[in-house]
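Hi support team,

I submitted a single chain yesterday and got back a structure, but I'm not sure I'm reading the token output correctly. Could someone confirm the output below corresponds to the sequence I sent? I've pasted both exactly as they appear in my results page.

Thanks,
R.
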Amino acid sequence: MHFDLIDLRLYLNSVEAGNITAGAARSHLSLAAASARIRAMEASLGIALLERGRRGISPTPAGKALAQHARTLLLHAEHLQQDLAEYAKGVKGQVRLLCNTTALSEYLPELLADFLHHHPHVDIDLQELPSQRITHALRQGAAELGIVSDAVDTQGLMTRPFRDDPLVLVLPPGHPLSEHPAPSFAQTLAHDYVGLASHSALAVYLEEQALHLGRRMQLRIRAEGFDALLRMVARGAGLALVPLAALQRNPQLRLQHRPLSEAWARRRLLLCARDFASLPLYAQGLCQALLAP
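Hi R., thanks for writing in. Yes, this is the structure output for that exact sequence:
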């Protein structure tokens, strides 16, 4: 078959009007062009689609089948055009958002849920990654938006402040380091830790910091999520480094905490993109929701 949507629309207009002349007028074609198109359709299929008489035309059985399928195809084409128009206007689409552990667990759930509720035609592809991998993905165009720690290099990207997100040392009751107002990370590595799951972006980041010092974290157990981790610390299983926001969300545990002396622990989270202005309108809408006070 070698015909297009113009052919199908012409054919339907002609069948519904009962003659090719009226069908051509409805399709904004000359009679000669319309007749040539319909003859080409019949030649392509190898069958007659129309019975021609002095009173006009009527579809053959094959022509009736074609008319039924043509109506379905043209309806789908109209829906496709409407959907693509929504994308073009920026009201429908999917945003790929990459973020670190803290953003995913502490700041984004309610923000993203509210955004999705108010934007039913926008979907979000959310993935947790270490901050350094996020910036690399953004530079490569593999995602529209990312939320990273300000400790990583964001050269070549545009950034906006998202949240202050200091990491604090959480201690079990009576731990020796509780006497230090701001211990160093190196001091903590002499003690047992409770860590996050190995796939966690924060776990990867902390283990890298230990390796920079030529040390390794003494992990006695890993926990899925900050809530479980903090409950284990409260029972004396070891130290933990967590975002202050996670600790504040669990006041019932009454845990001691101390700031670390390292600058990288006094971090901020940044919202990043290659170019905020060039993002689709639906992605710009997500930016506005994330940065709203």
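A quick pointer for reading it: The chain has a mean pLDDT of 92. Let us know if anything else looks off.

Best,
Support desk
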